[in-house]
Amino acid sequence: MAKAKILLAEDDVNLGSVLRQYLDAKGYEVDLCLDGEDAFKTFMENEYDLCILDVMMPKKDGFTLAKDIRRINSKIPIIFLTVRSMNEDVLKGFEIGADDYITKPFNMEELLMRIEAILRRTGRLTESKQTVFQIGKYTFDSVRQTLKIGDKVRKLTTKENELLKLLASNMNEVVERNYALKLVWGDDSFFNARSMDVYITKLRKYLADDPSVKIINVHSVGFKLITNAEE
Question: With helix as H, strand as E and coil as C, how does the chain read?
Answer without folding.
Answer: CCCCEEEEECCCHHHHHHHHHHHHHCCCEEEEECCHHHHHHHHHHCCCCEEEEECCCCCCCHHHHHHHHHHHCCCCCEEEEECCCCHHHHHHHHHHCCCEEEECCCCHHHHHHHHHHHHHHCCCCCCCCCCEEEECCEEEECCCCEEEECCEEEECCHHHHHHHHHHHHCCCCEEEHHHHHHHHHCCCCHHHHHHHHHHHHHHHHHCCCCCCCEEEEECCCEEEEECCCCC
